[in-house]
Amino acid sequence: MKMVLASLLTTMLIVAMTLGAMFVLVQATEYVTSLDSPLQRAAAIGAELLLGVVLLLGTVWLATHLAVRIFAKKETSVPGEKFA
Q: Is residue 79 part of a domain?
C-alpha cells in the first residue's frame, strides 16, 4: 500500500512539474517573440533554450530518481557476510 501511494504521489508530482515547466516555457516564448531588438531577441532565445533544457531535463531526472528510489529492491546485509 505504501509503494502504491508513493508511486501515485510521484506520478502527480511529475505531471505537475512537467506542466509547470511547459507553462513557463510558453510564457518565455511569448515574451521573447515580442522583443523588437534582434540582438536582444537572439540572446533571449539562447537563454530560453537553456531554461527549457534545464527545466525538462530536471523533470526527467527527478522522475527517474524517484522511480528508482520507490521500486528498487531493498537489500539486506547479513552480519559477517563479505562483499566481493
A: no
- The answer to whether the beta carbons of residues 48 and 25 sit under 8 Å apart is yes
pLDDT 10s digits, 45-68: 999 999 999 988 999 998 899 888
Is the separation of the CB atoms in 35 and 44 below 8 Å?
yes
Structural domain boundaries, residue 58:
32-69
Specify if 51 maps to a domain: yes
Of 58, 51, 55, 59, whose CA–CA distance to 13 is shortest?
59
Q: How many domains does the chain have?
A: 1
Q: pTM here?
A: 0.71
